[in-house]
Amino acid sequence: MELYRSFFIIILLILTTKICLSLDCIPGAGEVLVEDCGASLLPAQYLCTQLDIDPDTQQLVNCTKEGRGLTRCEAAPGILCTPFCNSTFLKEVECLWTNGYSFDTALLLSVFLGMFGIDRFYLGYPAIGCLKFATLGFFFIGHLVDVILISTQTLGPADNSSYIIPYFGPVLRKVLVGENTYRKEEGDWYTDKHSWSNPAE
Q1: Does residue 115 form part of some domain?
Q2: Which of 5, 37, 41, 106 allows an S-S link to 45, with CB 3.0 to 4.6 Å?
Q3: Do 24 and 85 form a contact (C-beta atoms < 8 A)?
Q4: Is-cis flag, bond preceding 83, omega within 30?
């Protein structure tokens, strides 16, 4: 009976706290109250300028394997966020999950010891590393290919994590083109520039 009573008291406290917070949050003149700022605000209505970057991984402190992390953002003037009735809120943003593989180390290993497969061992590909070691980097052709693949960040760690690169460093991102990508129509460059190509005109 005592357990039910304490459970009931806790639920009652939570409900009264929520009711008090919602009653206290009354927007002033020219202010708008938004229920969930993290999900409903448009990009021009907030700024996320205070990124909490981990110095070891060079990504957000709470970055997950799914490539998402929380960061503190501030809404534009005149927008209040519930339940705390202020303009700051947490928003889920994209980040790159890292697992300790440094881009600089992988590239240096590939350039200087790639013919022995050390770069592939470092990135977690032991089978290809053994083949490169046995064939002297596939007779130096595989060595050259791996230097190009690692320097363009096409070849990454085997666990599908990202390299540790400075947050504002030379990270290459893939831009995918799909059905929703706008393509600007352009005329035929050869016939437009050379009027002599069509003598009838």
Answers
A1: yes
A2: 41
A3: yes
A4: yes
Distances (CA, A) of 72 to 50, 52, 146: 7, 8, 39
Q: Does position 108 have pLDDT exceeding 50, yes or no? A: yes
Whether residue 142 lies inside any domain: the answer is yes
pLDDT at 27: 73
CA distances from 53 to 57, 70, 93 (A): 8, 11, 13
Total tally of structural domains belonging to the chain: 2
Alpha carbon distance 102, 109 (integer Å)? 11
Question: Per-residue pLDDT tens for 145-176?
Answer: 999 999 999 999 999 999 999 888 888 877 78
> From the CB of residue 163, how many other CB atoms can be counted at a distance below 10 Å?
23
For residue 24, what are its two tokens? 């206290």
Nearest alpha-carbon partner for 75 in 106, 34, 26: 34
Whether residue 195 is contained in a domain is answered as: no
Contact 99, 56 (CB under 8 A): no
Residue 33 shares a structural domain with residue 64: yes
Contact 119, 150 (CB under 8 A): yes
**165 and 98 Cβ atoms separated by less than 8 Å:** no
| Dist CA 84 CA 38 (whole Å) | 13
Q: Which residues form the domain of 107? A: 102-164
